[in-house]
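Q: Now give one record:
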Amino acid sequence: MNTASNTSPAPIVRSPALAVLANPKPANDLLSLLLREQQSMTAVDRFVSHEASAPPAQARYYRDLIPDMQPGPGQQYAFEVDLDACTGCKSCVTACHSLNGLDDTESFRNVGLIHGGKSDAGFQQTVTSSCHHCAEPACLTGCPVNAYEKDPITGIVKHLDDQCIGCQYCTLMCPYDAPKYNSARGIVRKCDMCSDRLSSGEAPACVQACPSEAIRIRIVDKADALAASNAGSFLPGAPGPQDTIPTTVYKTARPVPANALPADFYSVSPSHSHMPLVIMLVLTQLAVGAFSFAHLLPKANATTGGPPLSHALFALVLAGLALVVSPMHLGRPLLGYRAFLGLRHSWLSREIIAFGTFAPLAGAYALLVSPLAGASLKYSIVARYLDSARIESLRDTIGVATIAMGGLGVFCSVMVYAATKRPHWGAALTGYKFFITTAVLGASAAFMLSVLTNHEPAESIFSATKSQLLMLVIVMTSAIAKLSAEAIRLRHFFDKRTTSEKRVATLMIRDLGLATVGRFATGAMGGIVLAGILWLSARPGGQGNLHNSFVHVTAVASFVLLLGSELLERFLFFKAAPASRMPGGLT
C-alpha cells in the first residue's frame, strides 16, 4: 500500500545561513553581518582574520604569567614553578609535545615526584621540569660544533638543529637531562622556552596549558641566580646547581623535610653502551701505548731483529681504525668534519684534533723507518739537504712529537668525561683507567710484536732481552693495579648510603654481572697468568726452557685476552654510569 499520497510533504529545514542568503532583504543581525563580510573578504583576508595588534585569543588566561618587557642588563628570562600549585596533571607535558611536534619518544618537559617526611607526617610533591636555561650552560661549552647559543638579551639557551652532528655529548654534559637525542633524526633537540611565541607576546605552551597556573615566565637577575647556586639552593633531590647555575625558580610555602628524595632515587638501570666510543677509546690508547714502547724501547727490536716499522705500522693501523669507527657514534656522520669548531671550549673537539694529528705523525714516522723509504730518500730532494744522520734525527723528533700528541689525546679523552662533573667519571679515576689501559695494552702489544718479528727458529729456546722482561713487568703490574682498584670499588655495593659509587657497584654486580666477571677473568688470565708464565721462564735464573713457538702463541693469547678485557672495562665504563637527571618517578 502506497501511503505517500496520504501524507503531507515533510517540511524543508533550512539553516540560518541559507535562510539569510535566500532572503534578499537586508538584515542587521550578527550572522547576516558576518556572512556579508565573509563574501567580501579576499583569500588573504580569510587567513588574516584579525588585526596584527590584537592580542591572542587566550591572552586573558596567561597575561599575568609572562613579563611585559624584555630583560635588562644582567637579567634573563627564566621559568618559575609554584610547587604548591602543581598537581602533576601533565598538561604541560602534553602541550609541549603537541606544539613542538615531538616524536612519540621525545619529551622536553617531564613531571617527577619528591617524597619524604615521617610515617605520621608524610610529604609528597610533584615537580614539573624542563631546560633550566642555565647562566653557564654545560651543553653549550661541551658542544664540539657550536650547535648551542645563549641569546644575549633573553638568556634563552637555544639548540641549532642544522648545526648538530648528533654526537650526544651535550646529553652527558647537562646534569639535568634536558637535551634529548632523537635517533630517527640523528640530532639532539631541547626546549627553547617557545621563544617565537614569547617574542610575540604569547606564553610558552607549558605556561598556557597549565590549569593551575603553576608555571610562569619571569625575569631574574643573573647575580641572584649565582648567589642561589653558591648557596646550593635549588630543588631537593636535583643535581647541584654550582656547575651550571640553573635559573629556574622553584617556590613553595610548605616546609620541605630534610629527607625529601626523588621517587626514583633508589632505582638504577644500565645506561647506553656507546659501543663506537668503547672501541675508539681502547684502540687509540692501545695505539699510543704501542707506539710509545716501540720508540722508547728500541733495543727490543734491535736485539730480536724485528724492525721498528712493524710497531709504527701497528700503531698507525690502530689509530686509523679508531678514527674510522668513531664517526659511527654520530647521528649525522657526514658532518663530522665540523667537530673542530669547538676547539676553544670543548674537550671533545680537542680530543678529535689530537688523535687526528697523532695518526699522520705515526704515518710519517713509519715512512722514515721503512727500509724502502730509506733507500728512496737517498735519491730524493730531501737527500740534497739532509744526510742520513739528520734524517735519523728528524725521525726521532717526529717520534717524540707523535708520543706527545698521543699522550695529549689520551689526556683530552680523560677530560671529555671529567668535564661532565659526574663523580664516577672524575678526572683522577678516569685518568687512572685510561693511562693504565695505555700502559698495559701498549706493553703487551710491544712484547707480542717483538717476539713475532724474532727470526730465531721456532723450535729454539726463547731468550728474552731486558727490554722484553721490562715490558712483561709493566703488563703484570699494570693489570694487577687496575684490576685491584676496580675490585676495591665493588665494595660500595654493601654501603648503607645510596651514593654514586654504590649505584655503579650495584649495576656491575647485579645488572652487568656477566660482563664484570668476564672483565676480571680475561684481565687476570692475560695480564697476570700468561704474562707471569712468560716472565718466570724468561727471566735470568728462570726455567729457560720455553720454545719460541710457545712464546709466540702465549704472547698473542695474552694480548688478545687483555684487549678483550679492556673492551669490557670500557663497556662497563659507559653501561654502569648512573644518569644525572631531575627527579622522576611518575610514569
Observations:
- The chain is about 50% helix and 10% strand.
- The CA atoms of residues 486 and 520 lie 9 Å apart.
